[in-house]
Amino acid sequence: MAGAIGRAAVRALYAELALHPKPGLVSPLDSGSHDDMDMGTFLRSLFALRGYFRAIAAAGAEGADFPTLRELGITAERRMLAATGGVNTHRGAVFGLGLLAAAAGWRMRRGRTLRGNGLGATAAALWGAGILAAAPQAPDSHGARAVTRYGARGARQEAADGFPTLFEVALPALDRALAAGADPERASVQALFSLMAVLEDTNLLHRGGPAGLAFIQAGARRFLDRGGVFHAEWRDEALALHRACVVRRLSPGGSADMLAAAQFVHGLRERAA
Ligand SMILES: CC(C)(COP(=O)(O)OP(=O)(O)OC[C@H]1O[C@@H](n2cnc3c(N)ncnc32)[C@H](O)[C@@H]1O)[C@@H](O)C(=O)NCCC(=O)NCCS
Ligand SMILES: Nc1ncnc2c1ncn2[C@@H]1O[C@H](COP(=O)(O)OP(=O)(O)OP(=O)(O)O)[C@@H](O)[C@H]1O
């Protein structure tokens, strides 16, 4: 079971990486707004993280407490940095997707369904207090500074609350687009823009301040209001926002992490069905 969860997590991260167009983000097309990483950096990181997602799913199944999960996360982050030469490729995913893999282990071991927001509710109930109580590993990280400076919610708050943006925004957008006939690629782009329109992404706050975050949210909103991936010119419109992000050096990394999380939950549900 833990092996299947681990494989689903890596598959979801690969699907996020392979997807394009993705505004400002690294994809097979180009490195977006990043000069320190490309597709190869992400693939090396992914390779280094294979064992982690299986291990954290197994720990979750055993009912591990948050400090135990955190130790696994810190070790994985170290392995990621060694594989990338110090570049932060998957920090948000090690944390968020790691917690969701642990929650999947806990629920599957106990015969609970993965429907609705079950995985988020489990993560919040078992580890929410621990997440908020843990001292930030790096109090001067880009994310921590954006949280303090702008009062943003950030990755920790999102996880401690049971990933509301994932379960209330990303997964419904993905499901609706698939039900309306979009292929997995278009449905994923729709889910990504739905996330970008609402997420308080500390990556964007760090790189562009409140104006940078507002720029992305408005651009994504406009794309969705015109019909999103159901608009005939959707690819050109998404590429136009991509180019505008690259000019401004903006990259919605938090939305990319949450898209991978949505693909992970969706994939697990498909296999369980
Ligand atoms: C909690 C983490 C994410 C640190 O976050 P921090 O606030 O310091 O921000 P940092 O800039 O380092 O990275 C945060 C990443 O989260 C993502 N993110 C940003 N905003 C959001 C958001 N609103 N929602 C979800 N993800 C987001 C981005 O990809 C970003 O890169 C994590 O790096 C950490 O402390 N790890 C220690 C090990 C740990 O707790 N592991 C747990 C394993 S379960
Ligand atoms: N496809 C992707 N392309 C780029 N970033 C992604 C992608 N998928 C996820 N991310 C997330 O975005 C984060 C990278 O953002 P960024 O490079 O701005 O972080 P940083 O190292 O904190 O800042 P900086 O590079 O500005 O010093 C990663 O931690 C990762 O979680």
TrEMBL record:
Reaction(s) the record says it catalyses? 3'-dephospho-CoA + ATP = 2'-(5''-triphospho-alpha-D-ribosyl)-3'-dephospho-CoA + adenine
> Which gene is the coding source of this polypeptide chain?
mdcB
> Which GO molecular function annotations are given, in alphabetical order?
ATP binding; triphosphoribosyl-dephospho-CoA synthase activity
Q: What is this protein called?
A: Probable 2-(5''-triphosphoribosyl)-3'-dephosphocoenzyme-A synthase
Organism from which the protein derives: Azospirillum thiophilum
Q: Which Pfam families match?
A: CitG
Q: Known HAMAP family for this protein?
A: MdcB
Similarity-based family: Belongs to the CitG/MdcB family.
Q: Which PANTHER family match?
A: 2-(5''-TRIPHOSPHORIBOSYL)-3'-DEPHOSPHOCOENZYME-A SYNTHASE, TRIPHOSPHORIBOSYL-DEPHOSPHO-COA SYNTHASE
Report any one BP term from Gene Ontology. Answer: prosthetic group biosynthetic process
Query: What span is annotated as the signal peptide, if there is one?
Result: none
Q: What is its EC number?
A: 2.4.2.52
> What does the UniProt record say this protein does?
Involved in the formation of 2-(5''-phosphoribosyl)-3'-dephosphocoenzyme-A, the prosthetic group of the acyl-carrier protein of the malonate decarboxylase.
Keywords assigned by UniProt? ATP-binding, Nucleotide-binding, Transferase
